[in-house]
Write a structure and sequence with these properties.
This protein is mainly alpha-helical and about 300 residues long. The protein contains twelve helices and no strands. α9 crosses α10 and α10 packs antiparallel against α11. It is flat. The N and C termini lie far apart (about 55 Å). This is Type II secretion system F family protein. It is a multi-pass membrane protein.
């Protein structure tokens, strides 16, 4: 009886999703405005900053098409996904490929539900449809959040590298200002020193700001908002306050570079302390296991007698 009810519920849900796909609901005015703003923002990003995301053709035509449909679905409902977009911008990945991955991984797990049921039957565990159904749903939920966890870890590592590059960039700008260069020339010269991805992003932002007529601090602030790096946004706000005083800019940049280095050193010391504590715990567990190994034969003899 339970299997028939579940089968009927799955069939009904499938028919409902089929009807909704064939006859979609017309979006309201707010959804249309949100989709228009998202499309305009995406076009401005593509025209303003010439960044190259991994091409969608590398991940397959069907996955690329599915990713575009999912992006349109999110835009039509006004889902901004701002934190996800910031993490993707830091890691140089496309939103289409990310959403397609989040959809395909749980779908692949659900497709293999019959195999899970057959495997349980071979093990003589029984349970009918309930055990494979709940196991498939649990695995689908786990696989749905795996891309988010991976993206957050990669984005955190990339942001840490970017902050390190920003500290070196500020030192170079301060040195160029001390040598008599102007603010714009000092920023471009400092950004052109390194060949890493962080310096490339800074160089592209400053070059695009010169083309569109923005100030360098506005470009740095926009880059900080796009990548989700608060230090870069704060730096842009501080530079906008002392834009007309070169000596004040030099002192401000030097102070911020020193504070960023101090913060980075404190974070490194904290991580080193955590690792040392974990090593001490591992050594303690190893010693306890060794003592149990030595005392086990004597305990067995006492219990046997």
């Amino acid at each position: 009886m339970t299997g028939a009810i579940l089968a009927g519920a799955l069939v009904g849900a499938g028919l409902y999703l089929l009807v909704r796909a064939l006859f979609p609901r017309r979006p309201g005015l707010s959804a249309r405005l949100a989709a228009f703003d998202a499309a305009r923002h995406r076009d401005a990003e593509e025209a303003g900053a010439e960044r190259t995301f991994p091409p969608l053709e590398r991940v397959g035509v069907l996955r690329a098409r599915l990713g575009r449909e999912l992006v349109r679905f999110c835009d039509a409902r006004g889902w901004r996904l701002q934190s996800v977009r910031s993490d993707l911008a830091v890691t140089d990945r496309s939103l289409e490929a990310f959403l397609a991955t989040k959809f395909l991984l749980p779908a692949a797990v659900l497709v293999f539900l019959p195999l899970i049921g057959m495997y349980l039957e071979l093990l003589d565990l029984g349970g009918g449809l309930l055990v494979p159904l709940w196991a498939g749903l649990l695995l689908a939920g786990v696989f749905f959040f795996i891309p988010d966890l991976q993206l957050r870890q990669e984005a955190a590592s990339r942001r840490q590298d970017f902050r390190h590059a920003v500290g070196a960039f500020l030192d170079l700008v301060s040195m160029n200002l001390s040598g008599g260069r102007g603010v714009h020339e000092a920023l471009m010269t400092a950004a052109s020193v390194g060949d890493g991805w962080a310096m490339q992003r800074l160089r592209d932002a400053l070059g695009n700001a010169r083309i569109v007529g923005q100030t360098p601090w506005q470009a740095l602030g926009g880059l900080g908002d796009e990548l989700g790096i608060a230090e870069l946004t704060d730096l842009a706000g501080a530079l906008s306050l002392v834009a007309d005083d070169g000596a004040q800019i030099r002192r401000s940049l030097g102070a911020r570079a020193a504070s960023m280095r101090t913060r980075e050193l404190s974070e490194l010391e904290g991580r080193a302390g955590e690792r040392s504590q974990s090593m001490m715990v591992a050594q303690l567990l190893f010693c306890v296991a060794f003592m149990i190994f030595l005392a086990f034969p004597a305990l067995i003899r006492l219990i046997a007698t």
